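seq as requested:
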Amino acid sequence: MFLSPRRRRSPYALAHSSFAPNAVWTIVKLVVILALLYLVGSWVLRLFGVGSGGEKAAAALAVEDGGTVNVSVEGGGWQRAENDMKLYAGDKVNTATGGHGTLTFFDGTRVRLDERSDIALNRSTHDPKASAIGLTVNNGAVWIDVPSMKIFSGSIVREIVTPSSTLDLPSRSQAVIGPSSLTVFAADGLGITVRMRGRDSILIGEGQKWSVSSDTVPGADLYAYRSPLDPLAVQSPFIRDSRMMAASGGEHVSVAVRATSDILIVSKPQNNAMLTTGTIVVAGAVGAGVTQVQINGHTAPIDTTTHAFSQEISPQGTGDAEITIQALGANGTVLAQVTRTVHRSAQALPAPVITEPAAAGQTYRVQGEEIVLRGTAPASAVAIMVNDYKLRLFDPGKGTWSYLATTKVGNLQPGKNVYNVFALFGDGTAKGNAATITILLEAGPVGIVSTDQRSSSSALNPAALPTNAPLLPGSLAVTGPVPGTQATATGTGFLLEGATSAKTVSLWINDYRLQLYKPGKTTWNYIASPDLKNLKPGTNVYHIVARNGKGEILDTLDYTVEFQP
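struct tokens:
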């Protein structure tokens, strides 16, 4: 009654519409647009190697004098390579006869191509957290030198693909890789991982070679194709020059000199030699591009005809003495450097102590697949070596060491295994006396083996085997280093190899049974090296005996080598 009929019949005014729904829709639209921009942008970035896979990084190509190196960029045709070219994933490199080139990646990894080699870059991405390097070796061979972990920080994967396998390289790797072979000179951890489809991966450690013939279908056990490093392999000009480049850092070595001769070879003294007098002779030879040799800062005369040098010096001070030999170029640049450590006879460097599973000098029998050697180190030791392997986890502050011997990595094999344990002193180049333990992986009671037990075992004591006249005279022969019955050797060692009858079950050299010889195989080989204690300066006689399954002698042969290091 307070409102007029007119006002009661009029519609009520509506409230103002809320701003919230419009804002929500605006935000949703912006989110959708940003998401689309992110997806499209990520796709574009990945095309240029940026994004989830890391930033695309170049590899610099250095071309050496004396041969032809070709490149294929972004799938294009082959063209003559220029020095310091920048190559990326998808590019290819090949070398002609006499041609060599080196790729240097962002982490310092160097890959040097041998002549008549062909490789392809698969990946080179740099990321603060996870980086990757990958390449394929199609033909020929490459030398790869990977820096230590201290040089490059962050996680990085280094993968080499060959027609037969895929290799994963750890830090500090130095190796020669071919389409069906791998030779390891250095590697952190247990070594380089070899992967092959349908088979368990294996590890190839320092001083080992893995090779599968191109016409062979590998068996299930890839370790069957592993063997010790052939000392003659390091005499290959490609390996020799590549290792010399690695030792000099890659920048200071004259390519022209490398292509024709060694830069610096030091023949005397041997590293860790014992100094019995007040003076010592330092001798060797240099390449044609070397104009001066300095020994501990003093110039040594060079024979202009033979390029040899020799000088008698008197190391100063007491205890260990370090001798530094440098080869200099015309402008005074250091082309190569070699360091030798000598010890005075009055200072006997101590050996480590072996506490498990037996003491030094004892023999211990096992039947499992692995055993751990343990002991203590001398107070001043900076590192421990077992045979040719330097223990990675040794802490000088703790003073204890351990070493795992296992059939899985091949440092424990059926039969007799001898482990020489050394301590390294000073800067890690002075080697002390050895503590030796023998491990027998064979049937019999587990534990320490007495002298009587060893002498009664015909498997370890060849004197207990038959001494019959040869059943197949003339079936045993030596084919290298020189066919026949005698040879002369120089350098760091040689490979003794030969032929035998298919009826041979075991082959012995100087009462040592060849562990890698397989019954029925008609060829055999044996590494002779001062480091293995089976080669000494002067006359060396190798008494070779082939035996059948009953232990009977099939044939014998004596091979004499005059060794002149």
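The radius of gyration is 32 Å.
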